[in-house]
Amino acid sequence: MLNKLILRVFLSLSLALSCAGTANATLINQDILFNSIFDNEDTFEVIGHVSISLDTMDEWGEVNGTWESFSFYGYEVDPFDANWDLFVAIIDVTNIAAGIESLDFDVTLFSDLSFAGYIDVYDPINSISFSLFDNANEDLWDAGALAFGRANVVPTPATLVLFLTALMGLVVRRKNR
Questions:
Q1: Is the pLDDT of residue 99 over 50?
Q2: Is residue 163 included in any domain, yes or no?
């Protein structure tokens, strides 16, 4: 009886650990909020979205030059396009659920439209940190302050596999009684 229990435990652990290595990385998803200097209100509206994978993060919490999803005003920025110049996100490795602490970016779309900005979680309002620039006419379309929306941390599927393995173990244990 004890041998079967130990065998089942080792089988469950090996199944869970074998799936953990093939799971996708944890993603952090956040909306990008904007307050224009041309609006005299303190309201922020959603203008974009960013998703980053923790697999690309170094040991200090920096993600440099890569993202899963990055969009502004409905335009998706391709991470493999050579037109973007800068993308650096910093995450607090001790509190991943808090989301991205800072994001620095400079992206050109369609060779005419540029987005440049800096988002700092600790000081979102006190600086003009974003510009939308028309390169063809050399016009500044808009400028203002950026902030992050609420962070959504998507865990790896390995967590689900561990949970289902434990649940399966409980069902098997209940059937044996």
A1: yes
A2: no
Lowest-confidence region among 57-61, 67-71, 138-142 = 138-142
Contacts of 54 (CB under 8 A, 6+ apart): 25, 26, 27, 28, 91, 96
Question: Total domain count for the chain?
Answer: 1
Whether 172 is in a domain gets the answer no
Residue 26 amino acid letter: T
Nearest Cα residue to 73 out of 120, 139, 134: 134
165 occurs within a structural domain: no
The residue range of the domain holding 92 is 27-154
* Nearest of 128, 103, 131 to residue 118 by alpha carbon: 103
- pLDDT tens profile 65-88: 888 888 888 888 877 777 677 889
Burial of 90-116, coded b for 16+ CB within 10 Å and e otherwise, reads: bbeeeebeebbbbbbbebbbeeebbbb
